Amino acid sequence: MFKKVTVAPATYRSMALKEHNDNPLISALPERLEAKRLKQLLHKVPKLIPSAEFSTDDRIRLVKRLRKAVVPTRYYLDFYFAMYDLLIEGYEDRNPTLPNVIQWTYDIANPDVSVEELKLNDQITLDDTDTTSSHLFLSGLSGGGKTKLKKTLMSVCFPQVIFHTKDDFDELQIVHLNVEMPDDGTRSTFLKNIAQEFDETLKEIENTNYLSQMTKANGENLTIGAMTSIVKNLCLKYHVGVISVDEFQHLNVVNPTDFNLMLQLFDTMSNVYKVPFIKIGTPDALSKIKKFRNARRAGEVIEILPYNKAPDQSSDNKEKSNLGKDWKWMITTVFDFQVVNQPIKYSERVDQELHKLSCGLPYVLFTLWQETQIQAIRNKSEKITLQLLNIVYKKRFKLILPALNAIRGKTKSRASDLLMIDQLIEKGKNSPALKHLERYVNNENFTGVAAVDLLAAVNELDFKSVLKDEEVEQINKIKTVLEKRSQAIKKGQTINHE
After folding, report:
1. How far is CA 325 from CA 73, 311, 358, in A?
2. How many angstroms separate the CA atoms of 182 and 178, rounded?
């Protein structure tokens, strides 16, 4: 897949604070956008082309464009302003034109200067005191739109690379580096992912191959220390503003020792290299971080909650009346995007049903609206109905029905893991999906009807890419466990309460 990398020549703005004005890493950043303009820039709805003479396949392809829609809710604004502040804070002590910063950069990169010496000279922080501003955690259930939010904001609001043109500073600045937590949760794979991301980001500017430096001539990985040193030098060389790490919940399947070592790696990079991190993951990933670390060290948390439906319009509570605006915007978007020949008009009844079924999750809402239209085109009914919505819902979301029921009932349940598994399968990421599914099955330890229902859902999983032999073996083991547990069906035990 082609990856868009935006490279921009530096345009230096006049800043109110002198220390910001004299820092090219800050003064070259785009001006902070006002909320109204930000929402206008981010809002995106695919163009609806008249489809009367299109073939069935063409119309279905047109329907699938709906998933590319972007509805910038309040969380987009919260994340944008938090990320902007994070960039400024991260660059405040890293003015590359100041002699003391230049010396710090050389000392940090010099392997002959010990960490103890750096600490003694107050050049690095190795305790908890300065870590809060170096972290931002974007949390939310799978299907809440975290990744789309991050990608949209970073691609629209910030260049990824800035080419500086000052006489005393003519280097490259990577504003944001975007990596994914590996599904094996190991530091070596994570560090290699970062090196590869440097290569990808710079490929249109420089001919680099930093990933190859992570392995020895015989193909073995370098030591963690050596790999960390390479990443350190790259972060310093390219003045990295922030590193965002998506799919942080992949760490949930690693053992406690490896989990703690990964957190130590983040602490080192934040405190020694002064590179802020944005961690993106599910609420249980955040809880696990807090369990292993002081809760404050998770940094600022933005949690994307399922969207509420607008309350009764007669409500006098202004704060309450604002709660449903995001949902209303999403509903307007889906109703405006109908390819079927007999578009359904908006009604409060359909609105209520869509909210009930989707539980306010954008992924479920947009997928359900898309798949229902596809079904209506294929069965030639050419119309969305409440009955068809429910038929498609029960078939398409069979695996995640327990999670949606738990959300709907406002109960705490590990069933939320199923949302993530469904999302991973949708993206063609079979290996991590099966790891999390195996963990879920083993940890929940349900039997009877619950096992029967889940087994039926597993049997109908629609993998988007071909399973490898080891993945087939893994899913067969999961099915075997569920088959054994489903032998003695206990009355009333179910994971689907509807």
Report:
1. 8, 10, 16
2. 13
Q: Is 319 exposed, middle or buried (0-12, 13-18, 19+ CB in 10 A)?
A: exposed
How high is the mean pLDDT of the chain? 85
- The mean pLDDT value for 295-300 works out to 63
Average pLDDT over residues 354-369: 96
pLDDT band at 114 (very low <50, low <70, confident <90, very high): low
In a domain, 447, yes or no: yes
Q: What is the length of the chain?
A: 498
Tell whether 244 is covered by a domain. Answer: yes
Split into its structural domains, the chain has a count of 2
Q: Is residue 79 exposed (0-12), middle (13-18) or buried (19+ Cβ within 10 Å)?
A: buried
Given CA atoms 447, 453, 454, 456 in this order, what sign does their dihedral have? positive
For tokens 């930000």, what's the residue? 38
Same domain, 148 and 266: yes
Assess if residue 371 is contained within a domain: no
> b/e map of 285-308 (b: 16 or more CB within 10 Å)?
bbebbeeebeeebbbebbebebbe
- CATH code of residue 186: 3.40.50.300
Give me the domain span that covers residue 137: 7-31+73-304
Burial class (CB in 10 A: 0-12, 13-18, 19+), 195: buried
pLDDT digit string, tens, across residues 206-247: 889 999 999 998 989 999 999 998 998 999 899 999 999 999
The pLDDT tens digits of the residues spanning 438-475 come to 988 888 777 778 888 888 889 888 888 889 999 999 99
Residue 323: how many CB atoms within 10 A of its CB?
16
Q: Which amino acid is at 12?
A: Y
SS3 call for 469: helix
Is 374 inside any structural domain? no
Which of 279, 304, 329 finishes a domain?
Answer: 304
Cβ pair 326, 74 in contact under 8 A: yes
pLDDT for residue 40 is more than 90 = yes
| Among candidate residues 304, 322, 351, the one where a domain is terminated | 304
